[in-house]
Amino acid sequence: xxTERGVDGWPWPTMRDYLVEKLPRMGGQRxxxxxDEGRFVDExxxxxxxxxxxxxxxxxxxxxxxxxxxxxxxxxGILYSDERILVVDKPHFLSSIPRGRHVLESxxxxxxxxxxxxxxxxxxxxxxxxxGVLLLTRERKWRRPYQEIFERREVVKKYRLVAPVVHDPAxxxxxxxxxxxxxxxRIIKERGILQAREVPGVPNAVTDIALIGExxxxxxxxxxxxxxxxxxxxxxxxxxxxxxVNDPFYPVVLDTPxxxxxxPLQLQAWRMGFTDPVTGDxxxxxSRLRLAAWQ
Length: 295
Known about the structure:
By secondary structure, the chain is of the alpha+beta class. It is 16% helix and 26% strand. This is RNA pseudouridylate synthase.
């Protein structure tokens, strides 16, 4: 972080006062502890003390505290690897990228460490609770070409999921097709709210859904999203009257401990296909994972 440019009459007598104001989530007590430990330094590596006078236009370097994380009890399967990309089977509960409470327990951080690939990053994301095919780029120079095929909706994705069997769903936005149903609705996701929601208006989310197997009142479904709205498949299964097994957000948000790995959402990014943006070759990758509720 960098201190700010301004005029005479700075409101912070010391660097400590500046840091406390600019790092409210850290709190004054933790800022003091880190100052005492010498963890705030300038560009030359000199440490700041509690009484160091505020100095404008100065870079301040520090490492944030990492949250305590419970290891996710599952490995990451490698589906494909070449000089540009890495395709993996992401397990349930493992975050795609380091974020919030999930830093070490993320695909990116785990694989950067295990494979010695410091520039490894994802070309797209899967929700933490969703398992399946995830594409990463090995070096920074390859990131943009592969990200752009997702942004342009040039990747064909198929998901598989387990939910109660329905044969004749009806309702607004549900249309029968030769293979199943197409669901259309308008979905919005507000910042800071866990659930996305459907609202009246022009549809911005479309999913093709087919029931491909039945057993004991439960169904195996295949979902092909034509758009990429947050929690789209989960909301559209709700609209069919068949909520996905073990969904912690829909129809209601469940108070599930972050280290409870006993009831994975039965949703899997099963297959991905695209034309390679670098070589022009067709690519297709299929998950080897099995949904626990459909064995």
